[in-house]
Amino acid sequence: MSRKSSLLHELNEALRFHKFGNPRYRNKARQEMKLIITDMISLGVPPRSLKSINERMVRRLVNDWKSRKLSISTVMNKLSILRRLFKLMDIDKQLPSNKDLDVHWTEPRQKITPIKPEEIIKRLEHSITKTILEFQMYFGLTRQESIKLHLSFEIDSLPKHITVTRNYAHNSKDRFIPISTKEQKRSISKRLKILEKASMKVHSLNELAKASALSSLYNADFLVNEVNPIAPYRNYYVIQRYNQLQADKEQCSDRGIIETISQEIGIKKHSSVIAIIKHSKNKLGLCK
Predict the structure, then answer these.
(1) Residue at which a domain ends, from 88, 105, 135
(2) What is the residue range of 63's domain?
(3) In a shared domain, residues 275 and 181
(4) For the purposes of burial, counting CB atoms within 10 Å of the CB of 2, is it exposed (0-12), middle (13-18) or buried (19 or more)?
(5) Structural domain includes residue 95
(6) pLDDT (tens digit per residue) in 25-42
(7) pTM for this one?
(8) What does the DSSP 8-state code read for residue 86?
């Protein structure tokens, strides 16, 4: 068995017998580790086993990644997966920190000026970009969920909720988000009008163009108009939904409110939802 085959076999066994996040993250980690193993072999520093990866090898990897001009976030992600694998395999060895490896953000992250959601939408130019954002803010969808959302109803016969199906939901589960506000109804109306303009009957944006192309359009529109494209805009839904349910506390306890929101946005940990409610206004830069 070749050195590479041996390392890949060890990797697969490690991922099989250790909990390494959900299936999507585990597959991502497997692919990243395969690339790391390939890089070490091409650099002439192949370890005998994953447990024998040492600081010298890691420094060679990082220098190579930098010379290939990989982004800082990509390098940090690779190092994070490598460290997590070490921890799960109980490898009694500590890899150098990002600081020791001189891996850090070269520019401070820009501070986001608080603005209203409507002002963000007005800054954008393309109708498709706007509708992608609206479904993030008013329904709590991720960007990809907004792009792939399937709407098969008419504006004059709205159902009680929209359905995010498991085949594209970020948490791989069906989710049901109620339609209860004027902003939601207006957003649905705009989306349906866009879909109706297509030469053939379509029910989702990614039937008009590839999701990757729509995401690129989204990024470009945001950056050209000096709006942050990666801010967690769906957190706005969490805050508004929390306030809405709080106003009807006779029907739902505090714990029930958090559980409802968790199910609607597909976040399993209640503590994560609570953190969004407490801190997301400052992080997101949104205000009423």
Answers:
(1) 88
(2) 3-88
(3) yes
(4) exposed
(5) no
(6) 778 888 888 999 999 999
(7) 0.59
(8) H
